[in-house]
């Protein structure tokens, strides 16, 4: 990333900058939120065909997914030796399993005649193919072939399961199918440093909801990588959210957006008072009483933070800042993993669904801090295509927000496929994360 | 009745007992479905996302982190 | 006009309303032939067309490109009289978060690049000239998270003085314009940001934020050998007085 220019942010929102906003907070933001790293990149236009064609999907299957670090699961989902999940990405299927020597990842395909070795997550101490009984140890080495005499050309030492690299960070397990890939720590760059105070390794999966979406994976993913869409898609939030004056930053393979709450949208033609801001943040209807009357001299920001501070302090053992409690802090790890800071709990992952360029899987995890014994991780709650997000009660109000996004999403795919223009255009600053994503995607796709 | 005011247009959205939403904007009134579809009235277009927010499937009204914090605190 | 037939090279002009653009417009209005430079070619071409000047893309962190920028300016226009470095954008990081990888890009652009800009500018000013760098209030008053950004500029501010000494005999003047709080957004926003105003105006004796024109007029004055011929090695604060700091109310 040596050739990019620092973004000249002279063209910016008229609203208060995030740095100025948090400078006035009563409990100061941590240093990580005082980082500012705007970036300008060549990519502002991307061919529509990248979202709508089989050809580009196939390019991704050949040049991206087999070559990049990607989040497969969390360590807490495979705590004991033999515990495994099946990580699927497009046509690829990988068993991610805990062994005595750590977590390993093997391609889920019998080397005899190709049957998938494991059909579902679970716990096993060897992989026995349900077709003819070829068996491997969970470290991937060959264990047993029925009628061994009938395979004189097989050399045991060379018949281990093809494996993928495994790396872990923050309780997350990543895999990379490229054995020449740089170490995960190098790929993640600044991310571990940024998340030091938030310790995702000491959080647990409080909820995990998955839904198949009728769009290319990049279409749905990009809907969650900017706050620019709040003005139209989430109008109920506007009095209490700094959508247009969010901050966007890039460091290597990592990008971040910070969208403040407790500050009004610069799009408004009036100045909401603190009560009006808090009412919008707490989803108060016109006919309903306020959740709380903001006292004279207090701010919406301060009130929201004060309400959740005690619990947060107890869980973390430190004084948690206003910004961490009130604002949306959303990172992206290229290509498809989006860890938010822990007081939002949200973590997103987006993947192509099987080998279909017009379908994708959207997943929302809630990762929450805990005290005492680690709670069991929530199992994946799959919503059907007919269900909407409110059928996942564990998501709370977020489900209705997703329903608003979901009113757009299939229409984005349809619109792209009907488009006569050949390119989509991304804004210079507010769509930084998306531009950064496409910049990196192009690098992978362009490699020989 | 459940109602919301649109922060950009000033339009008032009111959820009726029959599930339609009455929208009043610039002295015009119309009735709409939660998915944005127009039903009747002089006002023929309204914000589909705000219609959905008010008239679509609801969740526990206090299940957002700003409200949660205060409710817990006030208990 | 005293700047007529003179050539000014301005790097950091591929934005829409930043200092580099404002300076280029001001110099062109006063008769200068402008060579506008930066990383993004489309805005440069638009600006060059508007000002009847020349557009040359240049990444200031690449020495060969800086060299080539001044060679092209000299070849195409016959001379180089004025050079203004307005490149380099804001990045912030508290010292507690610094790594070598984070520091290096700012050094490459705002320190190494800035020094090399001085060298290649002077190399082509065979008839004397005026070189300016755009510095910052942040290099005068310490602010958190600005160690790298401000120290690079502060370092260059001193290098400007060294350059003034080294090139004085050749009548090439070196000066720095330290920009204070300048309002640069172009939009006629319906929502005015009262909070920022309240925070900063009390610290500014002239009780307003600056405009790009304030910077441009200063650059114009420093560019003009008839207006500022005895000014060199100077750091001019265009900050409404904020650079002084003051005793609390």
Give an account of the 3D structure.
The complex is a heterotrimer of chains A (448), B (75) and C (249). In chain A, the strands form six sheets. A seven-stranded antiparallel β-sheet of chain A has the order 4-13-12-7-6-5-8, with no helix packed on it. Chain A has a five-stranded mixed β-sheet with strand order 18-19-20-14-21. Helices cover 24% and strands 26% of the residues of chain A. Mean pLDDT of chain A is 94; it is low at 1-5. Chain A has two domains: 5-64 and 197-446, Naphthalene 1,2-dioxygenase Alpha Subunit, Chain A, domain 1 (Alpha-Beta Complex); 70-180, 3-layer Sandwich (Rieske Iron-sulfur Protein). By secondary structure, chain A is an alpha+beta fold. Chain B is elongated. Chain C has 249 residues and is α/β, with parallel strands linked by helices. Chain C has a single domain, classed as NAD(P)-binding Rossmann-like Domain (Rossmann fold), CATH 3.40.50. Chain C has helices at residues 19-29, 41-51, 63-77, 100-123, 147-167, 194-200, 212-223, and strands at 7-11, 33-38, 54-57, 82-85, 129-136, 172-179, 234-238. In chain C, helix 1 (19-29) packs across helix 7 and helix 4 runs parallel beside helix 5 (147-167). The longest helix of chain C is centred in the middle third of the chain and has 24 residues, at 100-123. Chain C is globular, with a radius of gyration of 18 Å. The termini of chain C are far apart. The chains are: A alpha+beta (448), B alpha+beta (75), C alpha/beta (249). At the A-B interface, helix 7, helix 8, helix 9 and helix 11 of A face strand 1, helix 1 and helix 2 of B.
* Sheet with the most strands, sense and barrel status of chain B: 5 strands, antiparallel
In helices, the fraction of residues of chain B equals 10-25%
Q: Could you tell me the number of beta strands of chain B?
A: 5
Q: Class of the largest domain in chain A, according to the CATH hierarchy?
A: Alpha Beta
Classify the beta-strand content of chain B into a percent band.
25-35%
Fraction in beta strands of chain A: 25-35%
Overall tally of structural domains of chain A: 2
Strand order across the largest sheet of chain B: 1-2-3-4-5
The biggest beta sheet of chain A is recorded as: 7 strands, antiparallel
Regions of chain B with pLDDT < 50 over 5+ consecutive residues? none
Unreliable residue runs of chain A: 1-5
* Most extensive contact: A-B, 48 and 37 residues
Could you spell the SSE succession of chain B in H and E letters? EEEEEHH
E-strand count of chain A: 22
